[in-house]
Structure formats: structure tokens, C-alpha cells
Amino acid sequence: MSGYDAIDRALLVALAPDPRATVVALADQLGLSRNTVQARMSRLEASGAFLSFERSMDPAPLGYPLEAFIAVHVRQKRLRDVVDEIAEIPEVIQAHGLSGAVDLLVRVVCRDAHDLFRIDGEILAIDGVERTETSLAMGELIPYRLGPLLDRTA
């Protein structure tokens, strides 16, 4: 983890299982002063070490219990425009550009199968989208995590 020293890495390791740990709890756990932890946390946050809090929110209580992945095939030279339009769809929670046969992998949440059909139709209607392939997520088997990487580098 270039750019992070031993204290930064120790803070990140301590935060992995408990991202809401207080500065006081982290200071006690790591044997550091509260001011040191606060300063390091501020610096880590400013450097972009932490992702958005939204990543930890569950969309199911908002009425979106289903999740799907839509592989999007885009006509050449239209990728930026297609991405801009896909970003306007509220149910799109993430998208990645890919190398290979698929151009974009779009992660969406939906209320039910009819809602997913509507969202897929909105994506298909975007000028530059050639076709989509939709897969309903059956369950998250390995949640987003960095703990094992942090353990390896600490």
C-alpha cells in the first residue's frame, strides 16, 4: 500500500470490521493519542481512502429488493454519451467499463421483474446501445471487502 505508513495501515485494518468506530475507540485499540488518530483519519479522508457512505446502504428497505446486472453492448464511439444517459437512471447504482465482448456492466436495483424490464428498456432505448444481457442477482456471496487485502499488507 504505497502512500500509507504503518499507522495508516493499522487504522485501515481496525476500520475494516467496524467502519463506524469512533476516534476514541480507535485510539484505545491502537495505543495512539486521540489527536494522532483524528489527524490521520482527516488525512486519509482527504486523500480519498474512504468510499462513499452510500456503498454501505441497503436499497431493499427503500423498496428495491432485487438487484440485477445488465451487460451493455455499445456502438463504437458512443460510450461516453451512453454512460451519461445511463447515469440519469436512478435505479442504476454502479457501472463499470469493461474490456472484452461487453462494453459496460451496469448494476441496477428494482422493485420486481416488471420494474427490471422497464429499466432494461430504458437502457435499450439509449442511442448507441446495441443490445443488453440481463442477469438477476440471486444473492451476494462475497460482499465488498478489503479486510483480507489489508491483512496481507499490514
Automatic annotation (TrEMBL):
One of its GO terms (molecular function) is DNA binding. Pfam families: AsnC_trans_reg, HTH_AsnC-type. It comes from the Bacteria. SUPFAM superfamilies: Dimeric alpha+beta barrel, Winged helix' DNA-binding domain. The keyword rRNA-binding does not apply. Signal peptide: none annotated. Keywords: DNA-binding, Transcription, Transcription regulation. Residues 4-65 form the HTH asnC-type domain. PROSITE patterns: HTH_ASNC_2. The keyword Transcription regulation applies. This is DNA-binding Lrp family transcriptional regulator.
